[in-house]
Amino acid sequence: MGNVQIFKTMVLIVFRYDALTGVPSIQRTVAFEKASVLFNLAALYSQIGSRQDRGEAESDGAVDNFLRAAGTLRYIGEHFTHPPSFDLDPHTLDALTAMFLVCETKSYHSKF
Question: What is the pLDDT of residue 5?
Fold first, then answer.
């Protein structure tokens, strides 16, 4: 018997809904899945930051989480090109990043 090699190809299909418009997007790249997961992570950071207690001077949880959300969105904007959905568009990511930085600044100043 001969040596038989079987190569199976795996196709990845990423299906997600745009976070802002609700329009479905389908891609076949791992990069799109990575950007989607990172976008959801930024949303999670912003939710955690918005629920932190801002009254105590030593509490930096809100500031930290809003900075993490902004940094995650900035990373997506710098490393993910040609987005198929509106929520991953560089202009949208820049606007959301600016909004999270404003939230971080407000959280920082509300401690004093």
Answer: 56
Query: Count H helices, E strands: the chain?
Result: 3, 2
Q: Report which DSSP code applies to 85.
A: S
- Rg, the chain, Cα only: 19
> Could you give the dihedral angle defined by the CA atoms of residues 28, 34, 39 and 40, in that order, rounded to the nearest 10 degrees?
100
CATH 1.20.58 fits 14-109, yes or no: yes
**Predicted TM-score (pTM) of this structure:** 0.81
Do strands 24-27 and 14-17 pair parallel, antiparallel, or not at all (unpaired)? antiparallel
* Residue 13 phi, psi dihedral angles, 5° rounding: -120, 120
- Asked if 49 and 62 count as a contact pair (C-beta separation under 8 A), the reply is yes
